[in-house]
């Protein structure tokens, strides 16, 4: 397999973008990444697109050729392929783009992620977000996605003494980070008191413990590492790309306080990269709900099991921490356009490794990790990125 | 890149399978393919799943890990990835499985295609089938998928003198083939008169000119060719795997009587395989509508432009023809469970190349082609399969 590098990155602002369509968002991110890579569209071999639910959301399937079309590139007859894995769709699309270049089948590939959530009134309806859990055994009985994560939170509190206040520190952390990110959906800082006094969504999770529904798109351009220097002085190598699965329904798991898919993905990723956990300087993790972030920190291994709530509250993962976690603001503050999230995580890590993250820059960042989850963990994805010296 | 072989195949009956769920169908096809390959589930490296519209059809996204789960394989934490490209979803999933093995990232991969269409009353609604055309510029104005193909038929008749009777020979041909296929949705033969006297769907296309809406699933197991003999005496090599795109909307194309995506895909596939068109013994082509089959025959190159209607009516593509076309019965008679179609085409070709196609066997078949289309041609896929000697 060939070594694969990220040559260019792009992303739109995330947020409630009432005046912008799905296709506009996808194209803006894609062209930004192409320009950043100093590539011409005719150099492209393929496009991969991560998207969760365009059929339900905008009544449009077949969206990968749609974006190629509206970008004016149909004349090249590029392979244009959509990948779906719930909220992890973007990260899984990146895996496909990685394999496409690593295989030698394509030299330069755009991987995009895009989602337009605010065009329908009932996006929180179980038929959309609940469709990434087990429809027949969970959603149909009224279990919502935040409801399922709330069960995990309750059990984590019971087993490890995690407190409501520790959970509430997660969004405080994310908004602090997001305040430095011009693309973030939310740039306001919030206080512990605000989180604790917000109305409940699924107790113990309140309004501020749940990432927002956002519109947005992100894209990266991939190419063979051995040709990367031609395009950029700061190529970033994809050292590992791992996708794993687990049962759809929570009740089939042996534990509610860990995601085995994440544990296995992280382990495989560090083995693939031949790097250690302690080498990671910056990480973007899945924080769709406050509890999601704590499980991720523990399952990846940044915290011992049960210790993430305390360690996050103590500031271990703040800017310059070990590692810095979600400098972008994460899903909570940067935003959560489902299929775009996994690609946006890669964009943030690349900006950190290149030293282009401005007021949220982690100095000397060399190794970055991105972690994304679909549903309640039926899919996990871990990527490791390293600045090529 | 490593050479890739198909080691096992499986498929369910196609049809209106009221008593069977999406997950049951997917699992049956997958296990058949595994058993056929003499592989154990623990040998598997990944699963790819082609599916067009599960979100709209069964309110379930994230269906690749769902099938792994219900197959009882979650403990392996396999990558489980859904691919969507309208009606070509299955063929595009096969492309991804091919790249996954060719890259060296995975040794043995299951590629499945599955769709459950009969659980909703309004599947022909434009929000589902129309979602594979350009929603904002075609479907929203009332242009249906058969309506768009009917425009192509009208223009083909105008430009080349193709007759209504020649179009009507397409379903007659497909039902003749389907009558020999125990898995086919329709096994009854039909006459030219029946086709011509059936009610209109979108003139000139009548009820019999449109493939049915079917439930069903198909699966293949892929592995490295150099290890294929360990599992089978008759490995089938994937000699070429090509995906292409074109504009979503018909009105952006330079011609209504050809699919450039198919022309380019076929050309690239023969170049990749270093084989000639005249080497093909058996072909499965996209015949969602009668006109789709004529365009495919011409765009791949089996007929000169404008001649396919006449040549098909003359029997050029009958059993033992040059080549034999849609021995399975095609989308019209074998059935059209969107995401399963592309994989079912591969299953049929493998059975032909292995000499296992029973009463529809083409003797001495060595090279087979599969061609699938999404929407009105925004995606085309061409695969070439060869019996490894």
Sequence-ordered SSE layout with sheet pairings:
2 copies of one chain form a homodimer.
Chain A: E1 4-11, H1 22-36, E2 46-50, H2 54-58, H3 63-70, E3 80-84, H4 89-102, E4 109-115, H5 145-160, H6 164-178, H7 192-197, E5 200-202, E6 205-206, E7 216-224, E8 236-245, H8 260-273, E9 282-284, H9 290-300, H10 308-313, E10 324-325, H11 330-333, H12 338-354, E11 367-374, E12 379-387
Parallel strand pairs in A: 2-3, 2-4, 9-10, 9-11
Antiparallel strand pairs in A: 1-7, 1-8, 4-7, 5-6, 8-12, 11-12
Helix pairs in contact in A: 1-3, 4-12, 6-9
| DSSP summary: helix tally of chain A | 12
How big is the Rg of chain A? 19 Å
Helix content of chain A: 25-40%
Low-confidence stretches of chain A: none
